[in-house]
Amino acid sequence: MEWRTFVKEYFDAVHHAWLDGQLERLRPFYMGKEHLQAEECGWVNRAYEQMHKRGAKLLQVKGRVAPTCWLETADAVDITVFWTGKRWYLLQGRLHEEASNRLLQLRLDKATGQWEIVGTRERRGDPKSERAEEIMLRRSASAYEDAMAQPLLVVHGAGGYQPEKAVAYAERYWNTTNPAYPRFTDDCTNFISQCLYAGGIPMLMSKEKGKGWWIRTGKSADWSYSWTVAHSLYLLLKSGGPPMRAVAKPSAADLVPGDIICYDFNGDGRFQHNTIVVAKDANQMPLVNAHTTDSRMRYWAYEDSTAYTPQMRYAFFHIRGV
Questions:
Q1: Where in the chain is the domain with CATH 3.90.1720.10?
Q2: 80 forms bridges with which residues in the sheet?
Q3: What is the CATH number of domain 3-122?
Q4: On the CB side of 200, how many CA atoms lie within 13 Å of its CA?
Q5: What is the pLDDT of residues 57-67, one digit of tens each?
Q6: CA-CA distances (angstroms) from residue 120 to 62, 113, 207?
Q7: Alpha helix (H) ranges present in 55-140?
Q8: Phi, psi of 165 (to 5 degrees)
Q9: Which stretches of the chain are assigned E, i.e. beta strand?
Q10: According to DSSP H, which parts of the chain are helical?
């Protein structure tokens, strides 16, 4: 079997496993029982279990998979595939639609004479953003808050936050790029910053990348760490200071559309992802939009992410504005 056919058949099996939870259908694609057990703890099973815990019934999955690049040898191939699709589910008699685009990396092996999967992970991360984040992580949270307390120039008006405008922006650009802004490989925080700005949060300008919350476009394009780096925005939100004047909430249920969720996938205190709440489901729990893995109306918990670990922590912020 040609590896492209193998990959297509694998994702067909994934779609069916999402629907009925029958992970046995994935066994032919993995090398031995141990790999199937790893998959049972992975993103396919968590997607099914998350629906089950919510009391939702997944009705239909529609997806398209296209290889974007690959490195092939005689008995192995490393492939990056772009999955784009939608899921429809019923929750308390209400129909919901969820959409996402995922960039996944697969490693296939043919040492036994037939293709088998030996690794699956979601591709994410921008080296430039990671370096910026490492710089910010060398500062303590208190030092960062002290820096934010220094007088800075606030621009773009002084009105309050209009969450409906932030949500409208998140809906408009969830799977595309506003040409007025740069797009990063790890684009989640850049996207959230744009949403907040569209909602009326004023930029907090500074000449230093480690201060304020700002972006300059054009020939002299530059931006603050807090505009593009997940942990830096988390620290700004946590401070409760300008320009967002965020209020930490104890649970996801306390959030409303226009609020922000931060994700620490490894539970080590370093937050790597941010989303914006755009709606509430029939259980009054948040549905979010995000970039990097472009997502629309995705359930907030992210248990179906390949980055998920049992140690994952969340931070929930209500945005008050100026």
A1: 127-319
A2: 69, 105
A3: 3.10.450.50
A4: 15
A5: 999 999 999 99
A6: 20, 20, 42
A7: 127-137
A8: -75, -35
A9: 57-72, 76-91, 94-109, 116-122, 153-154, 204-205, 215-216, 222-223, 246-249, 260-264, 273-280, 286-290, 295-299, 313-319
A10: 3-20, 32-40, 43-54, 127-137, 141-148, 163-172, 188-198, 225-228, 230-239
Burial of residue 41, with CB atoms counted within 10 A of its CB: 0-12 exposed, 13-18 middle, 19 or more buried? exposed
Token representation of residue 252 = 């996801």
Under CATH, domain 127-319 is a member of which superfamily?
Answer: endopeptidase domain like (from Nostoc punctiforme) (3.90.1720.10)
321 dihedral zone (left: phi>0; alpha: psi -120 to 50; beta): left
In sequence order, which residues have a C-beta less than 8 Å from that of residue 28 and are 6 or more positions away?
A: none
C-beta atoms surrounding 151 within 10 Å: 6
Predicted confidence (pLDDT) per residue in 250-306, tens digit: 999 999 999 999 999 999 999 999 999 999 999 999 999 999 999 999 999 999 998
Which residues are 95's β-sheet partners?
Answer: 90
In order of 81, 113, 231, the CA distances from 76 in angstroms are 16, 11, 37
